[in-house]
Backbone:
């Protein structure tokens, strides 16, 4: 079966599955996992300044033997780093750590600083100033695609009123226990590619009996049927693992198909 990819509005093609790196520690742990992931076939590595592991990711890509252009890297502007100048500064710091002169995909990590009790609307002016800086970096070809993360329709509405460039990606939490329908519908309407983070619900899917049943009937693992569910809905999942066999298992989802009944049963909804 053909492995479909995601073509962004500007023509950049993203692979169908990316490798998540949150909680992989800087140094040997993240380097080993990323080398394993590249060897298994992943060509999109997802990090963030917040994860504290950009150095190891840059090193692993450098040592992979692949051309830089053949491995795409996403990193993110810290949730606390908002404003035009602050965004330029944070972006340069990420470039330096990643040991590269461009980033494939740069995202505003969150509309709201971590821990702030807010719907985020009072931060939109600062987010828009960050977006202006990202648009400039994009025009200077230091970033190949720009987007956001954790943005809901209200944040997207406010950003779209001011933006020259509509975000190309929104990275949001999606898994069988959490399907944010309104944000998904909004992104589809505006042609914003949806990346699903915590696609395995941080490991919580493995205790769901109905997923175990579907997986065993299919002769696949629970991780594989859930990642296939993401893929068949047009989401780009970013599974994380530090375990070599799981890293391989999570990208091996292109030779089977879930039917409409199985899709509906996985999340008990069909979008
Ligand atoms: N934009 C954002 O705000 C945001 C927020 C959260 C996450 N993310 C991104 O999304 C990525 C993935 O999300 P996540 O790390 O929260 O969680 P996840 O990918 O949903 O789940 C990771 C957990 O599942 C386990 N696991 C992975 N594959 C498995 C398999 N085949 N069988 C059994 N267990 C398996 C992992 O264990 P081992 O590692 O021990 O194998 C780990 O405990 C992150 O790494 C990050 O890149 C972004």
Residues:
């Amino acid at each position: 079966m053909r492995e479909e990819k995601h073509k962004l509005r500007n023509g950049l093609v993203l692979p169908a599955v990316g490798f998540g790196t949150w909680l992989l520690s800087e140094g040997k742990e993240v380097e080993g996992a990323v080398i394993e992931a590249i060897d298994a076939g992943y060509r999109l590595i997802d990090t963030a300044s917040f994860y504290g592991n950009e150095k190891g990711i840059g090193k692993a890509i450098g040592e992979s033997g692949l051309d830089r252009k053949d491995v795409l890297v996403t990193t993110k502007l810290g949730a606390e780093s908002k404003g035009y100048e602050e965004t330029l500064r944070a972006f340069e710091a990420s470039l330096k750590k990643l040991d590269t002169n461009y980033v494939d995909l740069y995202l505003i990590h969150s509309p709201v600083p971590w821990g702030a009790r807010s719907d985020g609307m009072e931060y939109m002016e600062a987010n828009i100033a960050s977006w202006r800086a990202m648009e400039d970096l994009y025009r200077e070809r230091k970033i190949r695609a720009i987007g956001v993360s954790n943005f809901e329709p209200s944040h997207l509405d406010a950003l779209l009123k001011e933006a020259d460039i509509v975000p190309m990606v929104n990275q949001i939490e999606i898994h069988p226990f959490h399907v944010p329908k309104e944000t998904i519908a909004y992104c589809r309407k505006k042609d914003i590619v949806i990346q699903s983070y915590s696609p395995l619900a941080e490991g919580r899917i493995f205790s769901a009996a109905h997923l175990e049943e579907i997986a065993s009937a299919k002769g696949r693992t629970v991780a594989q049927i859930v990642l296939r569910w993401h893929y068949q809905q047009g989401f780009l999942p970013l599974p994380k693992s530090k375990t070599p066999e799981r890293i391989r298992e999570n990208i091996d989802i292109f030779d089977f198909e879930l039917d409409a009944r199985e899709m509906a049963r996985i999340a008990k909804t069909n979008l």
